What does this fold into?
Amino acid sequence: MKKIAIIGAGRVGESTAHNLAKAELCREVVLIDIKEGVPQGTALDIQESAPIFDFDTKLSGSNELTAMAGAELVVITAGIPRKPGMSRSDVLDTNLAVMYGIVDVMRVSAPNAMLLMVTNPVDVLTYAAWKRTGWPRERVFGMAGVLDSARMASFVAMETGFSVKDINAMVLGGHGDTMVPMTRFTCINGIPIEHFLSQEKIDKIVKRTRDGGAEILSLRKTASAYDAPAAAIATMVDAISHNRRHILPAVAILQGEYGLHDIGMGVPVVFGERGMERVIELPLATAEAAEFKKSANMIQADLERLKKQ
It folds into this structure.
């Protein structure tokens, strides 16, 4: 890609910009933030690392949303972060207003771009952005499943002592307490984790995966996770930029898949140069289907709040 715009130059935005630049996933990255001097300083700091990390990506910063003009992909990380004890849904009202302001400018300044939503609650905001733009669902998607799956794989590696390179994990559903870690589709070099771990240990990994973001927030107290989310964003951008047709779990607008309509949910998605190419439907066991439905109901409750506003 030629140009990617990142809206929000906080920790997630900064780490994302650095990852994209180092991997040379585009020719230009522009960081946009309302705080005067912050995106400019952040961009300059990253740019000065170019000789060390050996990349030619050009970075710039702006306080104007119109600086996204010409971007092929817009990544939205802007919004208020969670504080200890807050759920992702608790920040909905404020972040919804922030997102609408960004998307309204995006429709004019970058009308042909793809939109990658990161701001929480990501499932609801991805859906709201899709409705606001009126764009095809292929161009509007959210980051959650890659991060949640990476956390689960990390915990499996910690518990077993095996190389994380051999571990594949899959997490579906909403990006919150009702996410659905798919233990049946989680394996170590093709071997199901049940071969190595007791059910008790697997259950603990599932719980820790669901609480992954809150655990980091409770430890740091003044900041939520940003390195792992930024890495997850870069993975999605890499799949799009290189047209890899990579299967990644992400928030997608469902139009009949998994028996659901008109909702944003975390599901396996094929990503290529046009964005979301298609949704992969997995055969869910009875218990998995029940958890997936429970997760959908939680998202739907937030969507009903949104529709009443």
In short: The mean pLDDT is 94. The two ends are 37 Å apart (CA to CA). Residues 3-142 form a domain with the Rossmann fold fold (CATH 3.40.50.720). The CA atoms of residues 20 and 234 lie 6 Å apart.
